[in-house]
Design goal:
Aminopeptidase, 322 residues, globular, OB fold (Dihydrolipoamide Acetyltransferase, E2P), four-stranded antiparallel beta sheet, 2 domains, 13-stranded mixed beta sheet, single chain, binds zinc ion, alpha/beta
């Protein structure tokens, strides 16, 4: 494994802010493919850091014991936003900048812009395929999933199917994606898969286990690894959903949301997901029911809610008729 510091800048107190890139080169000759993993662009999303740790550990072991298995090249950028990771915040401290909104063509020369652009350019130069790993916010917990903007689905879906996440969600473009890493690399024809999992500031080891197995399968499928370690299980293919296949349950009242179901559970139509309570008056305001038969893949984690808040999403077994 080769460790490289992509960019180093002094923090106000003099310590260094470094973006580190770990590289596993092909054993011999030209790599069949170059795959990159990025995590921590948002500093409060830690699931990806743990996933990168698992990948580095496993790949290092393969390199030590079976180096000829490396037919391709792997780059891992485990902590893309060091100051925000140190603060446990989504945004770059002091500037309040979102590194995942400074990718692609961008003006400005602040340190967050420099670091974002450096990562973007480096990924562009050294990758044929990129996986950008994110976690949810503190309000909603998500099953491991890959989200794909419609216009890139033809290219990305076959790749995403190899990762064995629970869900692949194909959704329309929105303005908010324009300056993201995923959108800009995909626009340059570098296929980029965006993972969303768990919640921020937490680690769900079971979810990361599944993602780790999925990423190893992806490396194998792409020919980067000639063989898979025997302890990587095969897992079922993900469920692919389109906007009409996502059933949402939202709160009709403000209150306290208490749920007794578990993420990943199969729900029947109208089955109870939880209750919205008025804790002051001691009354139940609302029974929240599943919007259809399917897999519960998003669940409200932060219980204090306002009316209209999203409480759950179900990947429907069957899309409703138009
Ligand atoms: Zn994120």
């Amino acid at each position: 494994m080769k460790t490289q510091t992509l960019l180093s800048r002094a923090s106000p107190l003099g310590s260094s802010l470094n973006i580190v890139k770990q590289t596993f080169p092909a054993h011999r000759g030209k790599p069949v493919q170059r795959v990159s993993f990025v995590s921590g662009l948002h500093g409060d999303e830690l699931e990806g850091l743990y996933l990168c740790h698992r990948l580095i550990q496993a790949l290092r072991h393969i390199q030590e014991t079976q180096p000829e298995a490396f037919k391709g090249e792997v780059h891992i950028y485990p902590a893309a936003n060091p100051p925000a990771l140190n603060h446990g915040t989504r945004l770059w401290p002091f500037y309040g900048s979102d590194m995942n909104r400074m990718m692609g063509p961008h003006s400005g020369s602040s340190i967050p812009v420099q670091m974002s652009q450096k990562i973007f350019e480096d990924l562009k130069e050294s990758s044929d395929l990129v996986v950008d790993i994110h976690a949810s916010n503190l309000h909603l917990k998500e099953l491991p999933q890959i989200r794909i903007i419609e216009e890139f689905s033809e290219e990305l879906l076959p790749l995403a199917l190899q990762t064995h996440t629970d869900i692949i969600w194909i959704h329309p473009m929105a303005g908010v994606f324009e300056s993201t890493l995923g959108y800009n690399l995909n626009k340059l024809n570098i296929p980029t898969l965006v993972i969303e999992t768990g919640t921020c500031l937490r680690i769900e080891p079971d979810f990361v286990d599944r993602l780790f197995h999925g990423m190893m399968h992806l490396l194998h499928h792409q020919g980067v690894l000639a063989s898979l370690p025997s302890d990587i299980p095969s897992v079922p293919a993900p469920q692919v959903i389109y906007p009409r296949g996502v059933g949402q349950a939202s709160a009709k009242h403000s209150g306290l949301f208490v749920s007794r179901v578990a993420l990943g559970q199969r729900m029947g139509e109208d089955e109870i997901i939880g209750q919205v309570l008025d804790p002051v008056k001691g009354v139940v305001l609302e029974e929240v029911t599943a919007p259809g038969n399917g897999l519960l893949f998003t669940l409200r984690e932060q219980p204090a809610i306002h009316s209209g808040a999203l409480l759950a999403r179900v990947a429907l077994d069957r899309e409703p008729k138009p």
